[in-house]
């Protein structure tokens, strides 16, 4: 199955895609009304606008440095996952999305990096918890949030993952404990973005790593992952032939393939790929 990720409401039902994802809240803080004919997407703890308006929302490391986009390695500003009012607002948005379409996708879930967050609230909550290890406590925070969200979503819950399948990296980096999250998540989505896809060995390596990490079999003819995952490719200004090749690699390992932010280019790639496959068919006479 092929899907498209878009900020344009008129593209969610576009041919030849089987599924449309619509950004209801993105990392800029831009908000839109959820759609009934799309899997509505919510950027949970990425929010430039909210972070710029209220410093108390922003996670800090042990030195008090904030996780904002004016620092190296941060593409957007983050929000502390323990902030109660922001978290409550997120759950309200998720509930509104689920009221329009029973399937919802959560993006940007987790702490920004290792070492976050050491705000006074997080320090206090960690001290009051029954955890001795800060990493374990962070995993509790994120798992509890996803569990709360799952209770509001009657259909499928999809969760975006940072593209790092190495064991324990996601847990250490963002507080994402995949084994525990699998109890609440129906499907993981892994964005593997590139502006060219001139080479795809790295795409195959990461895709195969996730297949193994999520309980799948190295043998592609064997058992699929216990929790399915899909791959998302970047489609903006990517050469169609390169995008087709990336799609062929991605669909070898993943349940489905989604395309981000250029529906027309992605549609051209899917149509040409389908046409090429039909040209290669041999029909024998009865």
Automatic annotation (TrEMBL):
Source organism superkingdom: Archaea
The protein here is known as Glycoside hydrolase domain protein
